[in-house]
Amino acid sequence: MTHARGERAALCDLLDRLGPDAPTLCDGWTTYDLAAHLVLRERRPDAAAGIALKPLAGHTASVQDSLKARHPYPELVGLVRRPGGVYGLLPFLDEAVNTLELFVHHEDVRRAQPGWEPREVSPDLDRMLWKRVSAGGRLMLRRSPVGVVLHRIGGGVALGGPRIGPKVEVTGTASELLLFCFGRQEQTLVELSGDPGAIARLKSAKLGI
C-alpha cells in the first residue's frame, strides 16, 4: 500500500467513526465540510482552482456546499476513500500529489479532537515527508515575516522566510515540521528558539501553500 492510500484509508476510517459534525483544525469546517473539500479537489477540477486563487473562492465554496447538499455524509466519505479523477487512473500521481494533503488533513481531524496524542510515523514516511519539506520549505514559508531554520530530529536542515533579519529555529520531527509549515503552528509539537517577538510573529503568521 502506498503512503497516500494508507493515509486515505486511515482518514476515512476516522471520518466514519466521528460522524459529520466533528470539529477539524480547518477554520470553520466540520468533518462533513472536509470530506466535501476532498471530493471537490479530486473530482471537480473546474472548481478546485478556487482553493488557491481567492477570486475563484466563491465558486469553489458554492460547489463544495452543493456536494454536501447532494451527498449524504457516508456517501461523501466513500468517495474520498476511492481516489477520484486522474488520481484513480494513475496511482503514482496519487502518491506524488496527495500524500501530503491526506496526511495534513488526517491530522486536522485527529488534533481537533479532545485528548489527541501524537502517532508514530514509519521511517519511510518520515523520510518522504522530510524530502517534501526540505524541497518545498521556501514555498510553504514564503509568507513568514521572519527567517525560519527548520531542524529535523534525526538530521536535516531547511530554510525559509526572509533571508535577512531575525531568524527562528524550529526543531521537530519531519511530520511536525510539515504541519508547522502548513500553518498548524499552534497544534504542532516543535521547539522554537530565537527572539521572543520573532517567535510570536511566526506563530501567528499564515503559512502554507
From TrEMBL:
InterPro entries named in the record: CHP03085, DinB/YfiT-like, Maleyloyr_isom
What NCBIfam families does UniProt report for this protein, alphabetically?
maleylpyruvate isomerase family mycothiol-dependent enzyme, TIGR03085 family metal-binding protein
| Protein's recorded name | TIGR03085 family protein
From which lineage does this chain's organism come? Answer: Bacteria, Bacillati, Actinomycetota, Actinomycetes, Streptosporangiales
